[in-house]
Amino acid sequence: MKQSIEALQGTAAFAGISEDALRFLLERSHVITVPRGHVFFRERDHGDTLFLLEEGAVEIFKTRDGIRRDVGALSEGDCFGEMALLSITDRSATVMATEPCVCLELSNRALFALYERDVGQFALVVMNLGREVCRRLRDLNEVLLSQAVAQAYAGLGEDAPPIPQGPIDAS
Asked: If 0-12 CB within 10 Å is exposed, 13-18 middle and 19+ buried, where does residue 52 land?
């Protein structure tokens, strides 16, 4: 268990969480192993767990009108499923293993038990998950802005100036 605790402390979702709180959560979680191609959950499924990738990789995608759009990819140390857990809503995307995966599955019941036991450590976990969601939202905003700029420049034809590269300074 010591190795699992150290691995968790090295992740964004569980950074700064005490060894005691992590041991408490590990006792209430499950380790699952899934093959390549396994779908963890589909967009619009009910969600009450999050997954932390200990090994392997997953892809995240959304589907509209039969068209699949890749949203991202995650690997060892990343978590997924936290949005449904935090927002108490259905899953926002589909997550599928692109490699064999070993994951820690943590339920909302386990987090609530931590809340009842140590509200400070619970708050830290929730803050970590919130920061991770914000980081992903920031990344998505950059992708959307880059696509919008590329489309705008594409409409200008051959007379368009070069498309700016890198981060855009909003100040």
From this structure: buried
Q: Using CB atoms within 10 A of its CB, is residue 7 exposed (0-12), middle (13-18) or buried (19+)?
A: middle
Note the pLDDT tens digit of each residue in 79-136. 999 988 788 889 999 999 999 999 999 999 999 999 999 999 999 999 999 998 888 8
Q: What is the radius of gyration, based on Cα positions, of the chain?
A: 19
Phi, psi of 52 (to 5 degrees): -115, 120
What pTM, to 2 d.p., does this model score?
0.78
Please tell me the distance from the alpha carbon of residue 155 to that of residue 171, in angstroms, as a whole number: 26
Residue boundaries of the structural domains of the chain: 2-156
Q: Which CATH architecture has domain 2-156?
A: Sandwich (2.60)
